[in-house]
């Protein structure tokens, strides 16, 4: 008998392997954020995955929306397919900034966002956003 370890076959690296230093840019493409005005409000539509790599994109969009001067910012997160604690941190930060700026902030959470808000008992901190939204 041979004393060699049995060979374990490992999958070949994917043809689209990430290069070091480009991780943030490539991962952030899994998150889509669109800001559109409607009436005197701004609507921020968020879809895709929010994690530590893509959260800066969401944070930047919310900061821009809150600094725009609109009296209210509505955030539609029904298209979010994954979120972790960084998403919650971004939302709580935006809530604080909105309160300091006297801007209304309303949230339409999807299932994933609703779950993290329920687990952390923070759902009551956000005004609910009526759906369906048009723009």
Give me a quick take on this structure.
With about 140 residues, the chain is α/β, with parallel strands linked by helices. The chain has a single domain (about 25-125), classed as 2-Layer Sandwich (Transcription Regulator spoIIAA), CATH 3.30.750.24. The chain has helices spanning about 25-30, 55-65, 85-100, 110-120; strands spanning about 30-40, 40-50, 70-85, 105-110, 125-130.
Q: What would your notes on this structure say?
A:
- The protein is of the alpha/beta class and 135 residues long.
- The protein has a single domain, classed as Transcription Regulator spoIIAA, CATH 3.30.750.
- The chain contains four helices and five strands, in the order αββαβαβαβ.
- The chain has a five-stranded mixed sheet with strand order 1-2-3-4-5.
- About 13% of the residues have low confidence.
- GO terms for molecular function: anti-sigma factor antagonist activity.
Please give the share of residues in helix: 25-40%
| Helix segment tally | 4
Count the E strands: 5
CATH class placement: Alpha Beta
Largest sheet strand order: 1-2-3-4-5
**Can you give the mean pLDDT?**
83
CATH superfamily: STAS domain
The whole-angstrom Rg is 19 Å
CATH architecture: 2-Layer Sandwich
H/E element sequence: HEEHEHEHE
Mass-distribution shape: globular
| Biggest pleated-sheet summary | 5 strands, mixed
Strand content bin = 25-35%
What do we call the CATH topology?
Transcription Regulator spoIIAA
- What is the number of independent domains? 1
Instruction: Give the distance, in angstroms, between the N- and C-terminal Cα atoms.
Output: 70 Å
Low-confidence stretches: 10-27
Protein name: Anti-sigma factor antagonist
Family: Belongs to the anti-sigma-factor antagonist family.
Region (Disordered): 1-27
Domain STAS: 31-135
């Amino acid at each position: 008998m041979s004393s060699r370890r049995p060979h374990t076959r490992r999958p070949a690296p994917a043809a689209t392997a990430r290069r070091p230093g480009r991780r943030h840019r490539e991962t952030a493409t899994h998150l889509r954020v669109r800001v559109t005005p409607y009436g005197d409000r701004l609507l921020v539509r968020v879809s895709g995955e929010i994690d530590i790599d893509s959260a800066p994109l969401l944070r930047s969009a919310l900061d821009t929306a809150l600094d725009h001067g609109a009296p209210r910012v509505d955030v539609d997160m029904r298209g979010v397919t994954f979120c972790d604690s960084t998403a919650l941190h971004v939302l709580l930060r935006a809530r604080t900034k909105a309160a300091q700026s006297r801007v209304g902030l309303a949230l339409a959470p999807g299932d994933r966002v609703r779950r993290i808000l329920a687990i952390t008992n923070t759902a009551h901190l956000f005004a609910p956003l009526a759906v369906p939204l048009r723009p």
